[in-house]
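task queued by scheduler; priority normal; single chain, no ligands, no partner chains; default sampling; output format set to structure tokens
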Amino acid sequence: MLNSETQSGADSLNLSHAETDALFKAVSEQLSLNTFNSDDEELIKRMVESMGDSRGMVRLSFAEALGKIGKPATPLLMEAVASHPNPVVRRASAKTLTLIADPIAVPTLVNALLNDEDMVVKTSAVGGLAKIGEAAVPALLKILASTEYPESAKGHAVWALGFIGAEAKEHLYREINSNSAEVRAAVVGAIAKIAQEGTEEGAFNILINALNDPSEIVRCEAAAALGSLTYRSAIPSLVKLLHHPDWETRKAAALALMKIGDGAALEPLQAALTEEQEAGVEAVMKLAISQIERQLKEEAWE
């Protein structure tokens, strides 16, 4: 049984399941024989409409076929993402744009991420932006810098930047000096992904410099990244943060040192603990000390 959303997609095309299957068979044959006419907008439009079919495998099959057609299908897919009344078609069209990864779709996908009412359309749109790569980076950074957009959209933008990774490095390295602390924090998270790939020593230097950022959220993001990367060269800089006036920063530094797990951090942590007055930070420092001591004991027995 078709739900109302799927039924509206089927009705707009007036194709039965048998007719939809016949359309797909014809298209598949043309694609395999290299005879598909990519200038046939009417045929491509029928394929896009067929992604409102109630059967998931049929929608996937048409999406893959449109992906093979590539850039000639982009304008009609963009139109569907922007204005098709059936969210099932909008979802499938956004996912298909991810397969094609045509940079001209960036404004349409950004609009869907920010304004579509359907959450699956939003997540499919951000997947498309991530797959497009570098061409989508300026738009993603603009979302982060704005005060108008919801946190959910900004979270999606952060994820996409991290996915794009090294391909976005020139933009990211420039934006580490952004006036927006939110942008700088997101950039630190994305640069951590680049550092993880191990091809950019400069990425680690940026993360260490970010430990001295005037914003707490940037310092904490940088400390968390360096801890996750177990970057031992960051230990001296993290040790300095154990005495920072901001308690969240001290806590982030202690957690990072715990994750790195190097004995060189043990004495500085113990010294900082004797001065610490914030209960939450004190607890983290004690945990870090015990974890590092345990690790040292285990290493001694290996």
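post-processing summary
- Confidence is low (pLDDT under 50) at residues 1-12.
- The chain has 18 helices and no strands.
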